[in-house]
Amino acid sequence: GIASAAALSQGFAGYLSSFFDIPKALASLSLITFIGLLAFKGINESAKAAAFFTLIEILGLVLVIWFGRDAFVSMSASRILSVDPTYGISGLIAGAFLAFYAFIGFEDMANVAEEAKNPKKNMPLAILISLIASTVLYLLVVVVATTIVSPQELASSGAPLSLVVQRSIYDAGFAISIIGLVAAFNGVIVQVIMGSRILYGLSMQGWITSIFSKVHGKFQTPTVATLVVVLLMMAGTVLLPLVSLAQITSLLVLSIFAAVNLSLVVIKKRHP
Description:
By secondary structure, the protein is mostly helical. It contains eleven helices and no strands.
């Protein structure tokens, strides 16, 4: 969560640079600070903000797909399934590894189960619906993006979706940059909430020091846990570049997912 948010804050700075000449480090740190204060204020405010920004994110992806809809005319199974000789199989594997970064977040819902109404019914539904919707949107965006703009140009752009829209018949790069800012903001707020709740939960169960289980008297949010998560995110965004943070996030999440699923198999065998 910390590595992910640090990467997203740099993505925020990249889209912000489309409008203002602000040092990226300053933009990233300001974003994390603001979101830390919002998360500290309460889960209700944070959840409402995340829900609102998610709707804007979906709108942005739908706009990218709509503006680049001509890409589907030239789409063919052979083109989509072929491997670019410039990158080869090794490039395909590296791309898949990095793209896994886009599929983190679904597990974050489970970490706020205590703050949900009827989690036994709502949590599985929420995770499955969001997973399916995101997969469909991502795949459609991939077809549009790689048809309109070359992979080399996408890789070198600080605001790739804006570039895709600018190359389409509609020059709405400005709007997409705004939505890119919103998407990064939303991603960071989710990770701040998730990270602080994990530390809180571990502390409550006695796995780590009890200081992380302390909650604010008025806002009822985990004070120390939120502060520590925010400070670590700041350190990550200052010390490491965007691609390295994304790679670290993918590696950690893949490792954790594998370990969790193996553990579930063991638990199932022990307790049928």
